[in-house]
Amino acid sequence: MDKLVVNGPNRLCGELTVxxxxxxxxxxxxxxxxxxxxxxxxxxxxxADMDSAQRMLLCFGAEIDQNMKSQFGANWVVxxxxxxxxxxxxxxxxxxxxxxxxxxxLLARRGEARVSLPGGCAIGARPVDLHLNAFEALGAKxxxxxxxVTVRAKDGKLPGGKYVFPFVSVGATENVMMAATLSKGExxxxxxxxxxxxxxxxxxxNSMGAKISGHGTSTITISGVDRLEPMNFTIPPDRIEAATxxxxxxxxxxxxxxxxAPVVDLGxxxxxxxxxxxEYGIEENIIQLESSGDILPVSxxxxxxxxxxxxxxxxxxxxxxxxxxxxxxxxxxxxxxxxHVPELIRMGANIKIDGNKLTIKAKKSxxxxxxxxxxxxxxxxxxxxxxxxxEGSSEVLRIYHLDRGYESMELKLRSLGARVERV
Length: 423
Ligand code: UD1
Prior knowledge:
Blueprint: E1 4-8, E2 13-17, H1 22-31, E3 38-44, H2 48-60, E4 63-67, E5 74-79, E6 87-88, H3 90-93, H4 103-110, E7 112-116, H5 129-137, E8 140-145, E9 148-153, E10 161-164, H6 170-181, E11 186-190, H7 196-207, E12 211-213, E13 219-223, E14 232-234, H8 239-251, E15 255-259, H9 267-275, E16 279-283, E17 286-290, E18 300-301, H10 313-320, E19 326-330, H11 340-346, E20 350-354, E21 357-361, E22 371-373, H12 377-389, E23 392-397, H13 400-405, H14 409-415, E24 420-422
Parallel strand pairs: 2-15, 3-14, 6-7, 10-11, 18-19, 22-23
Antiparallel strand pairs: 1-23, 1-24, 3-5, 4-5, 7-9, 8-9, 11-13, 12-13, 15-17, 16-17, 19-21, 20-21
Helix pairs in contact: 1-2, 1-7, 4-6, 5-6, 6-7, 8-10, 8-12, 10-12, 11-12
């Protein structure tokens, strides 16, 4: 199994181009199931999660060509003219929860879909009740048996309706929005997620002929259309990857120029970085950040967009271990998202966990290298960041988690001058 060996401390300096967004790309590649034809999807990040999505699409009968012109990203040509199956087996779904995104598109295209329930995952139970309740509210019949869920639309088309989400769910908003595009009537989603990835998905669907309005706000209205055309779309840059490298540069007292940066989507993270002493300038889609290495403590609370993203919480904890004072971190989205904390403590961090809140008492450069391991993607990224500033050698084990969401992280870090090897 691969691991990353990091020798610290490091000071990161240089330029990077942000890769395509994993969380935008996942629902978008599944949306290709909704229109018969040949789709072009550019700048798809080369990640283990995208490989899982590809396997899933192949299992439904899609054909996929990938053109990899450079070291990063790929252009996918997805042919969905021969979709034969509407069933997603457990073996594929269990590897990636986002496989559940196939349900909405298959329901829309075939009037029926049968997908394995995803089960729990490292960061909590992560149920799918909101997805299923919303499908029902739009007129679908939902049945569960033997670990599978079957969703059917009477006469092959959802009649339409209204669903008020009891709390914000990104995945459920996306799944149901996809199903609703080919409904017979009007569908209204209230308290819908406002995350940029929801917005991009709606934009792609509209470019295919869907009639979606209100995306980017908490009320999305979808007027059903009869058919969709294939898409030709370029995946926007990944705000979580961008945030991770900005934090890495700040933490190491370095400087970074990020090209193809999703400036608008990074509002809460950029505000927190500025508060913590980083200086940055923005020119169109380029962010230039400089850090003196003096990091001020900044407390954060994760929230749905436009609040501070839960996917950057673990990396923020690593940054705060280098601050000059006490900070707190509150996680409000997932119930079990502090797996990085015991490992950071093993490296010398002073962190107390109290329910969903952390108190981090920091003393700059207090971390020392150690073998560490995490059980989820962003927790693993947090450990790599900590290893960059820690004194001595660290081994970050089980980096298949990192490979799910970061394109060749060690190559990108090395291009910034970090001493990192994949072993
Ligand atoms: C997506 C992102 C993930 C991010 C998360 C929150 C993708 C592929 N993943 O995950 O990186 O951390 O948004 O921004 O885009 N919930 C329920 N019932 C449901 C659905 C969700 O209780 O049916 C709960 C979840 O357990 C969680 C909360 O709602 O506590 C938010 O989850 P959700 O927004 O749905 O996250 P995902 O779409 O799974």
